[in-house]
Amino acid sequence: MNTHKSRWLSQKPEFETKATEEALRLAEYRLQSLLELSLMNWASVKEIAEYILERQVRITNSKLGAISLLNEDETALTFQAWSKEIRQKCSMEDSTDLLVPIDSTGLWADLVRERKPLIINDFSSSILSGKVFRECPVELFRFMSVPVFDENRIVAVALVGNHEKDYDESDLSQLTLLMDGMWKLIQRRQSDKALREAESLAAIGKALSGLAHDLRTPIVAIGGFARIIQRHMGKDNPDWNKLHIVIKEAQRMENMVKNMLDFARPLDLDKSLEEIERLIDESLACLESAAREKMVQIQRHSSLSIPLISVDAMRMKQVIINLVINAIQASPQHGIVVLRTHYKDEILAIDIVDHGPGIPPEKREEIFYPFISTKKEGTGLGLAIVRKIVEAHKGHIKIFDNPTGGVTFRVLIPSQ
């Protein structure tokens, strides 16, 4: 009896030592992963997510895992990284840019609804389905997830599953630290990119200002003299149509110079308390002929709960007209453009929805740069000015895919 007890006591320290060594090894691996992650400024979001997925599956001893990013409304997600089993059985090979409605994603929808980390070690006693997706044959018998928050909004969700043993709080801590590290790196990359863009735009603005002032006088002179000459000749004159083209092109150049100056000069807002619905109605009245010419219907969804908002009325009309005319031009004949407003948490949101060919995700930031245009006759300054006006109102503009095709431009303006 004493010999057996002595033997057990001598083995206990060895067992504890192995557990301690394993814990230290995981901690070292996690720290190494976070250090390597901090140096990945060169990587894309997808590459960052794939790196984190590999680490989180290994650290938590899981068999599978996935990472997704959520859109602004938390209504849809894009998958950034997923393990081999999910990729093969759920046909996820080319889904990085696919926007998936959250309600159709099984467990992912439950995660967003719960808004907290989840550990489920026994699906038989859980109301959750036990599937990664509703129509995906990958079954989970153990499961752990972590939402990543940016203030009050969920921006990303990580999922791991099928550990041979129960998941515990230690596993949850490991996964949380990795996901927090991932999001901080993504935010840092976004901040660095925004700073570089601001410096670049400042330089472009300075150059444009000088160019616009040099062009303005001769262009106005060309248009003015052409109009005088045209007034003194009849329409039967063979040169009348040629002068009409000169006048039209001079007017287009004048508008381009005006846009250059609008973009280059500091934006001083003349703000007052305004009824946003009235501003939108007045803006849409200017676009009736453009919509009729393209045979596009504009559907208006008004909100009755929007208070007076402090904005520059003329500038906000400029934003609305520019975005709606773009939506009309992007739409097919007999298409529908939807404009709706909503107000929540002292933020005004204006959505302009089209059902055109869409905008690839990699182009969505580029279209706001000066002189980038998808139109044959575009100056490439319209959206750059739109963003400048929105940001001068302390707001921002987002682009989302629509489940039925096309995109939504969302303008967000704080009420104060």
Class per helix and strand makeup: alpha+beta
* CATH arch. level architecture of the largest domain: 2-Layer Sandwich
Give the overall shape, derived from the CA principal axes.
Answer: elongated
**What's the CATH class of the largest domain, please?**
Alpha Beta
CATH superfamily of the largest domain: GAF domain
Q: What count of helical segments does DSSP give?
A: 10
Helical fraction: 40-55%
Percentage of β-strand residues: 15-25%
Listing every helix as H and every strand as E from the N terminus to the C terminus, the arrangement reads HHEEHEHEEEHHEHHEEHEEHEE
Strand order of the largest sheet: 3-2-1-6-5-4
The termini sit apart by 79 Å
The radius of gyration computed from the alpha-carbon positions, rounded to a whole number of angstroms, is 29 Å
Give the number of domains: 2
Main beta sheet strand tally, sense and closure: 6 strands, antiparallel
CATH fold-level assignment of the largest domain: Beta-Lactamase
Q: What would you say this structure looks like, in words?
A:
A six-stranded antiparallel sheet has the order 3-2-1-6-5-4, with helices on both faces. A five-stranded mixed sheet has the order 8-10-11-13-12. A two-stranded antiparallel ribbon has the order 7-9. It has 416 residues and is of the alpha+beta class. The longest helix is centred in the middle third of the chain and has 63 residues, at 169-231. It has helices at 2-38, 45-59, 84-89, 107-114, 169-231, 240-264, 276-285, 288-294, 313-330, 382-392; strands at residues 64-70, 76-82, 100-101, 118-120, 143-150, 153-161, 272-274, 297-301, 309-311, 336-344, 347-353, 396-401, 407-414. The model is unreliable at 5-10 (pLDDT under 50).
